[in-house]
Amino acid sequence: MNQVLEHTFERLDRAALARQVERLVTRLHPTVTLERRRDDRVAMPVLLRLVPLDEDHQPIDDQAITVIGKNISRRGVSFYHNRPLAYRRALISVEHPTLDEFSAEIDVTWCRFTKPGWYESGGRLMAAMTAQPPALRGATKSAVRLPPAARPGEESNGSMA
Known about the structure:
Elements: H1 2-28, E1 42-43, E2 47-52, E3 65-72, E4 76-81, E5 89-94, E6 102-115, E7 118-128
Antiparallel strand pairs: 1-3, 2-3, 2-5, 3-4, 4-7, 5-6, 6-7
């Protein structure tokens, strides 16, 4: 009798687990009724290095942060990070032993606060970096901040966050 009950509970637990997974997947990938983007997006759950660029487009390595990729298309990329971004232009790169090297300039066009300690940002990929820039090899430079007003169409409350 105990074996029958254990088997029944196991099936109920599996059914409850399946429902939870379905609800989670639905929340993670909601149905989009009107797609504005021209290119398909691909999930990109990898760690990326984001190095801000100053007003002369020079890397500022001492302001670099690690971000978590969300998705990428041929024209843009989105990612998660743990603090507001103070710069609009940056270099974004992934260097993973099983992935080809990727390094590009990004124009960060939006940033949204998702919950305490987490932000989601994204933007347009501007140009591929053909050689690894000095900032990705450890050079440093002083920071020059761009004003938030210079960012048309971003979703924010006056800053990049």
